[in-house]
Specification:
about 100 residues, alpha+beta, Ubiquitin-like (UB roll), five-stranded mixed beta sheet, about 25% strand, globular, binds FE2/S2 (inorganic) cluster
Length: about 100
């Protein structure tokens, strides 16, 4: 199975390597990343991030995620809720404070 790398805009944290299709909320913790999680089902917005990919491919937004992002950041295409992202490419993640 392939592995992909998550690097963080915040240099305080080293990159993390995770298996393909890993859900970020199952692997990222306060020890290894700046991302915090709350509900983990795409409705609270605690895990709001900007994600830059090498090839632009990420899993489709879930319905909960789409509704949340349209309400909060309708113009920002790179925003995702990290708890709704399954890894399928190398990504760089930047935490967004609401
Ligand atoms: S943890 Fe609540 S939206 Fe991701």
């Amino acid at each position: 199975m392939s592995k992909y790398k998550i690097s963080f805009a915040d240099d305080e944290f080293d990159p993390v390597e995770l298996p393909e299709q890993a859900n970020l909320s199952e692997y990222l913790t306060v020890q290894n990343s700046p991302i915090l999680f709350g509900c983990r089902i795409g409705i609270c917005g605690t895990c709001l991030v900007e994600i830059i990919t090498e090839d632009g491919s990420l899993n489709e937004r879930t319905e909960n995620e789409r509704e949340f992002l349209e309400a909060v950041y309708p113009e920002e295409k790179k925003c995702r809720l990290a708890c709704q992202v399954n890894l399928n490419t190398n990504i760089k993640v930047k935490k967004i404070e609401l």
